[in-house]
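Late entry, written up from scratch paper. The run itself happened at the end of the previous shift, but nothing got recorded in the book at the time, so transcribing now.
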Amino acid sequence: MNMSKAKYSMSPAPYASSDDFRSVFREEADSLYRLAFLLTADGEKAQQSFVSGLDGSLNGYPVFKDWARSWARRTIIQNAVRAIHPRPMEERAPSSFDDGCATPAVEQAETAAVLQLEPFERFVYVISVIEHYSTLDCSLLLGCTRQDVIAARIRASQQIEMQSALTTSSTYNCRNDRTDLLK
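Output as recorded:
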């Protein structure tokens, strides 16, 4: 067998250029803004996190071209953390939920439930559940222990389940109320 010519290239992977990051932000603008909004639960801070994420991606550390999309998401997460400063707190009762018929939860149950979480629980849920970061990565981004992340993820999941149950019940009651009005 003649193995004189190797078929594998040993050249380094290309780094992402400014144009690569601009393309990511242009193609995924809605998704990236939604990530910023879910984290901050505030339109203005979401916009700041988005713009700072673009700036950080363009002027930050060089990353491989294949990592540009994940790096853009990570910079938005980091900027949202800086904007909100979510900190773990002692376990507390879930926040109250609006059970009115005209809530956004009827149409966007998970989004509304996530936005109603306390900031730390919201960040943990978005980063670890929606974005699929590991518990360790989540704890490093938030500057807390893995145990804090695990406990917050459990609380967030329980609150979202509770909100989902309330939304389902509220939707059922609203439909019954409307049906009664039509009689």
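Residues 146-182 form the longest helix (37 residues).
(Scratch paper discarded after transcription.)
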